[in-house]
């Protein structure tokens, strides 16, 4: 697909990721449908997008004069057929449940024009599994965005065994319009990003368990010595220890011993120390989300 064939994009699911994806599509000048089953989620997403555009304009990262027109390019709807029928590219960002995604993709195949790429923002599922019930599996491709979408520069393109060259070319064209960089990865558990990130986090927990250094010093070492923007424990607290543990359990099951879960991480999850979202993980946070310096762990 040439860039000019890409005019209308549909985003399914208007949560954390869907709102951000719709925003960057509209910022790229695309007519954007944002679909959700829940009216309140759509309303919230519109507020989030408006707030984010305003903030970007205040920081001089987006023209203030374009904010209103960009917001107007996002059409929110709970009408699935109306959202997907005119689409040149669909990106699914609904909950991470295989059966839900499969059912949605079957409906997409039925209602969209033949050949329109069907992207999934899944963070862990196999593209081939999502495509499995479709007649034309070549249309399905992984389009993995990062949170927060307007800020993070990468789209990790995940290729299933059947993903077509046309779907790949269209995804690369879409990324360009959205101002994102891309990498191509063949489908494998954890793709490239989640797999390496999980391993660094896991190794940091193993070092903490064996008393090699404190959490603060391991975080500081990776930030100041290796130029990581965040330490592995700060990252684990941000992602959520329960979310991180379930990824690691999946990688352990599929890729083997390298990903054996850390007993310390399991213990923190059992104790409800899930990270920033509950005010306590590896570190402790006050009600405003600021870290309390002398936290124990
Ligand atoms: N949160 C992250 O940091 C992140 C990063 C990369 C990828 N992902 C992936 O993106 C996807 C969405 O994650 P999220 O964090 O935005 O979730 P979320 O819970 O914030 O949003 C999901 C939205 O989907 C809606 N929804 C539920 N069923 C639907 C359906 N049948 N059709 C349309 N909408 C439906 C919900 O109402 C909700 O608004 C998941 O596959 C997740 O694994 C998440």
User: Can you tell me the number of structural domains?
Assistant: 2
**Shape descriptor:** globular
Bound molecules: nicotinamide-adenine-dinucleotide
**How far apart are the termini?**
53 Å
Strand order of the largest sheet: 3-2-1-4-5-6-7-8
Going by CATH, the homologous superfamily of the largest domain would be NAD(P)-binding Rossmann-like Domain
Q: What share of residues is helical? A: 40-55%
Oligomer: single chain
* N-to-C SSE string, H for helix and E for strand: EHEHHEHEHEHEEHEHHHHH
Percentage of residues in strands: 5-15%
- Rg, rounded, reads 20 Å
CATH architectural group of the largest domain: 3-Layer(aba) Sandwich
Tell me the number of helical segments per DSSP (H or I, 4 or more residues long).
12
What is the CATH fold-level name of the largest domain? Rossmann fold
Q: Describe the biggest sheet?
A: 8 strands, mixed
Report the top-level CATH class of the largest domain.
Answer: Alpha Beta
The tally of strands reads 8
Mean pLDDT, as a whole number?
95
Q: What structural class do you assign from the helix and strand content? A: alpha/beta
